[in-house]
């Protein structure tokens, strides 16, 4: 089985597993315990904190470990909002459900919540940016790279314009794929996830500038400087740290390889009759490609590819199963009929050229024979 | 014998090797996202998650559909208490809990107080158990929820959950139970127990850290406001990618607990009784918490006339704690022991021994001789001990003001 769904989750890097195993087997201490097993666990968590910080150009003290990217997004938006008086929040039109749903919750608590519209390229429109520059909202949340299309927003520009707003950036999909610098981007909060960068599920982080007022969402125990109660998930945090370290040191090499595979794939797909690659001309993650073939339902194509031994998806894993056209594509003004045909291919560092060729061959055969599910 | 000897199983347990073995394939070849619906990687992961859900449900005799995955018992406590309080707040805004609860419950209650809820914090009796009459008397017409832990993390006492639950039922109060320290130690039958919400943790029961669950009763149905928003996982109650390997680990840990707890508890009880017998003949030691209504794993003892920090330093070859791990980083005397009416001094000089699956008789004997030796030495240099031995009642001594 060939795996092309790395934006849903990535396989664990073998070196990450090696780093984690001692913390699943012999080093079992609770980092809050004062005795030796506890201190060993504490040191491991702190090492990981520095590794994660280094991946995104932050300092270790800015890293708040969470159970994952969704919790980080929840903590960013709600944690901020519960520390402020209800005001105005603006989120990108193509954000992840954990941002969208958190913002919806704020709307039920008196916040004025609106989206920043995107153009056909998937980029936030100038008009929307002008509006936040003129009337700065209290909170702005914009993702760095989209999980479906791979489109990269110019978050630095948003930060430059949205002065006066607390700016949160969901960098879950961007981390490990493109260079990141928390300090230089000018955002105050940034969400990360371990399992999207070759680490384990169950660990993520919110990078938070010390100036940001944050109310914890999970109370009790005082862990993570009181910002997130609960015994630290030591093994997963260690794995996240190791994955971050590897992603940082191999970033260039990985992204060059991914881009080469993706470009070959794109070239092949564009030759297929009726195929459209979404956000084709926009700067995108090197590993992501989303396309549709006119007359083909995305779910059907995905299932047919599965029969050929190839795992892809029709959109984000969270919404998997729902046969609705992708809200991301609709926000970009893509025709709903075409959006329903969306197939997302997201590559990983261990994919090979041969695998890419197999995908192209399989797709070609499916379309040639008019195969249906 | 490997030093330090680990007698802190209530802080966290080692992962059972059988659990680790089960987890590893879900870190390696079966790495799919359980929410991926379009390929076998996702289906395999989803199947594993559902099997684990069944195992967790089985240990406590619940329906798998009543189990919601969380990142741990702290999150479960937060979801249960805030989720129910927020959902039912039009019915009333009064909550009841006990002063000896875990911080995850107490801090959550404090947070709700700051958003307009009223909370009654009941004093336990001197043995750590809840006075049922006092509990009944605390219920008001606007009480929506009560939260009482099944097994206390510091002193190991077991509350009468069935009786408290019945009182809650009589008054239409939602009953939440933090059972993080109870699984694998006491039988839990949620078909019989009048409990509406129950929190579980994996890493207190030989599973991995970072995973827990909340039981949410279906009949009569308990509703909650979600606390984590996003992709709508866990029927909308808790969004976020499910950590498959951890869930698999929790399922396996709970399966092992179900099959082995009866025999294991007997073995651990014998070891605990050995420890107790070894320490009980010392002078001026006090057992904290009821000895009968208590899990066999726990012994919490105060050593009078010994300074707590010095004792902890002296017994570095024992990994024990002077309170719960979550609060042990602070040098405050345990709030649990203070709630039992122990003086600051006694609370400060207490040690919690918690035994578990890998504790041996050798470990226990080592602990006994080390404690006896070190306590004797510390007392030798203690002026208070000398005064006590001279028959001076320290409570009557007028201390000069310290400058």
From TrEMBL, chain A:
Report domain Aminotransferase class V positions: 2-359
PROSITE patterns under this entry?
Answer: AA_TRANSFER_CLASS_5 (PS00595)
**Which keywords are on file for this protein?**
Iron, Iron-sulfur, Metal-binding, Pyridoxal phosphate, Transferase
- MF terms in GO: cysteine desulfurase activity; iron-sulfur cluster binding; metal ion binding
The record lists the organism as Methylococcus capsulatus
Q: Which cofactor does it need?
A: pyridoxal 5'-phosphate
Recorded hits in Gene3D superfamilies, A to Z, give: 1.10.260.50, Aspartate Aminotransferase, domain 1, Type I PLP-dependent aspartate aminotransferase-like (Major domain)
Identify the InterPro entries for this entry. Aminotrans_V_dom (IPR000192), Aminotrans_V_PyrdxlP_BS (IPR020578), Cysteine_dSase (IPR016454), PyrdxlP-dep_Trfase (IPR015424), PyrdxlP-dep_Trfase_major (IPR015421), PyrdxlP-dep_Trfase_small (IPR015422)
Transmembrane segment boundaries: none
Q: What is its EC number?
A: 2.8.1.7
**What is the protein name given in its UniProt record?**
cysteine desulfurase
Q: List the catalytic activities from the record.
A: (sulfur carrier)-H + L-cysteine = (sulfur carrier)-SH + L-alanine
Family recorded in the similarity comment: Belongs to the class-V pyridoxal-phosphate-dependent aminotransferase family. NifS/IscS subfamily.
Automatic annotation (TrEMBL), chain B:
Compartments, record wording: Cytoplasm
What reaction does this enzyme carry out catalytically?
Answer: (sulfur carrier)-H + L-cysteine = (sulfur carrier)-SH + L-alanine
The record's annotation in InterPro entries points to: Aminotrans_V_dom, Aminotrans_V_PyrdxlP_BS, Cys_deSase_IscS, Cysteine_dSase, PyrdxlP-dep_Trfase, PyrdxlP-dep_Trfase_major, PyrdxlP-dep_Trfase_small
**Active-site positions on this chain:** 326 (cysteine persulfide intermediate)
Which is one Gene Ontology cellular component term of this protein? L-cysteine desulfurase complex
Q: Keywords assigned by UniProt?
A: 2Fe-2S, Cytoplasm, Iron, Iron-sulfur, Metal-binding, Pyridoxal phosphate, Transferase
So which cofactors does this thing need? Answer: pyridoxal 5'-phosphate
Q: Name one GO biological process term.
A: [2Fe-2S] cluster assembly
The pathway to which it is assigned is:
Cofactor biosynthesis; iron-sulfur cluster biosynthesis
- Tell me the Pfam families matching this sequence: Aminotran_5
Domain Aminotransferase class V, chain residue ranges per copy: 5-365
The catalytic activity of this protein is classed by the Enzyme Commission as: 2.8.1.7
Give, as one word, the top-level EC class: transferase
Amino acids binding [2Fe-2S] cluster: 326
* PANTHER family recorded: CYSTEINE DESULFURASE (PTHR11601:SF34), CYSTEINE DESULFURYLASE FAMILY MEMBER (PTHR11601)
Self-association and partners: Homodimer. Forms a heterotetramer with IscU, interacts with other sulfur acceptors.
Q: What is this protein called?
A: Cysteine desulfurase IscS
Q: Which organism is it from?
A: Methylococcus capsulatus
Its taxonomic path starts at: Bacteria, Pseudomonadati, Pseudomonadota, Gammaproteobacteria, Methylococcales
Gene of this entry: iscS
């Amino acid at each position: 089985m060939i795996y092309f769904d790395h934006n849903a989750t990535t396989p664990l890097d073998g070196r990450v597993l090696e780093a984690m195993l001692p913390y699943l087997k012999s080093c079992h201490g609770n980092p809050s315990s004062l005795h030796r097993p506890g201190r060993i666990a504490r040191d491991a968590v702190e090492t990981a904190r520095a590794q994660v910080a280094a991946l995104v150009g932050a300092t270790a003290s800015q890293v708040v470990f969470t159970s994952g990217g969704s919790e980080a997004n929840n903590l960013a938006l709600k944690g901020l909002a519960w520390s402020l008086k209800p005001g105005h929040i603006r989120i990108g039109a193509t954000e992840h459900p954990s941002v969208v749903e958190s913002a919806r919750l704020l709307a039920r608590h008196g916040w004025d919540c609106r989206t920043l519209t995107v153009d056909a390229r998937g980029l936030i429109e100038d008009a929307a940016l002008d509006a936040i520059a003129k009337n700065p909202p209290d909170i702005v949340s914009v993702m760095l790279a989209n999980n479906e299309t791979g489109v990269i927003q110019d978050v630095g520009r948003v930060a430059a314009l949205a002065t006066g707003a607390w700016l949160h950036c969901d960098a879950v999909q961007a981390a490990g794929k493109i260079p990141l610098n928390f300090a230089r981007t000018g955002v105050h909060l940034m969400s990360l996830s371990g399992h999207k960068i070759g680490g384990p599920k169950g660990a993520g982080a919110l990078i938070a500038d010390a100036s940001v007022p944050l109310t914890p969402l999970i109370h009790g125990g005082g862990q993570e400087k009181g910002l997130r109660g609960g015994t630290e998930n030591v093994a997963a945090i260690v794995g996240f740290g190791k994955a971050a370290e590897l992603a940082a040191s191999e970033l260039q090499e990985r992204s060059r390889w991914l881009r080469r595979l993706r470009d070959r794939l794109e070239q092949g797909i564009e030759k297929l009759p009726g195929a459209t690659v979404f956000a084709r001309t926009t700067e995108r993650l090197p590993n992501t490609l989303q396309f549709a073939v006119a007359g083909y339902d995305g779910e059907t194509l995905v299932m047919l590819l599965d029969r050929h031994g190839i795992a892809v998806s029709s959109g984000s894993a969270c919404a998997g199963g729902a046969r609705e056209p992708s809200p991301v594509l609709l926000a970009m003004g893509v025709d709903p009929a075409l959006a329903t045909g969306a197939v997302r291919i997201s590559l990983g560092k261990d994919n090979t050229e041969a695998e890419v060729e197999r995908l192209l061959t399989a797709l070609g055969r499916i379309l040639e024979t008019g195969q249906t599910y | 014998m490997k030093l330090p000897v680990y007698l802190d199983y209530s802080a966290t347990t080692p992962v059972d090797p059988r659990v680790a073995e089960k987890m590893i394939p879900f870190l390696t070849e079966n790495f799919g996202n359980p929410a991926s619906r379009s390929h076998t990687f996702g289906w395999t992961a989803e199947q594993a998650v559902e099997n684990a859900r069944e195992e967790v449900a089985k240990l406590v005799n619940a329906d798998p559909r009543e189990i919601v995955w969380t990142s741990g018992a702290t999150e479960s406590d937060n979801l249960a208490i805030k989720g129910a309080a927020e959902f039912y707040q039009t019915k009333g805004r009064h909550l009841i809990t006990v002063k000896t609860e875990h911080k995850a419950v107490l801090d959550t209650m404090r947070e709700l107080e700051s958003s307009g809820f009223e909370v009654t914090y009941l004093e336990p009796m001197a043995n750590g158990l809840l006075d049922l009459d006092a509990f009944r008397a605390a219920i008001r017409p606007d009480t929506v929820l009560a939260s009482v832990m099944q097994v206390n993390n510091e002193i190991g006492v077991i509350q009468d959950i069935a009786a408290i639950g019945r009182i809650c039922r009589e008054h239409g109060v939602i009953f939440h139970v933090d059972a993080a320290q109870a699984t694998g130690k006491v039988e839990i039958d949620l078909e019989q127990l009048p409990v509406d919400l129950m929190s579980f943790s994996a890493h207190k029961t030989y599973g991995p850290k970072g995973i827990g669950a909340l039981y949410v009763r279906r009949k009569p149905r308990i509703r909650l406001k979600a606390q984590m928003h996003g992709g709508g996982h866990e029927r909308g109650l808790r969004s976020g990618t499910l950590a498959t390997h951890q869930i698999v680990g929790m399922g396996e840990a709970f399966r092992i607990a179900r099959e082995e707890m009866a025999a294991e508890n007997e073995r651990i009880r014998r070891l605990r009784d050995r420890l107790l017998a070894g320490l009980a003949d010392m002078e001026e030691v006090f057992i904290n918490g009821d000895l009968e209504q208590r899990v066999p794993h726990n012994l919490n003892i105060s050593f009078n006339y010994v300074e707590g920090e010095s004792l902890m330093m002296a017994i570095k070859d024992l990994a024990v704690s002077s309170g719960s791990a979550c609060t042990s980083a602070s040098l405050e005397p345990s709030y649990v022991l203070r709630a039992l009416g122990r003086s600051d001094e006694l609370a400060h000089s207490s040690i919690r021994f918690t035994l578990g699956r890998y504790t041996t008789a050798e470990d226990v004997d080592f602990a006994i001789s080390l404690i006896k030796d070190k306590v004797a030495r510390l007392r030798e240099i203690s002026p208070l001990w000398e005064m006590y031995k001279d028959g001076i009642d320290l409570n009557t001594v007028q201390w000069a003001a310290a400058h």
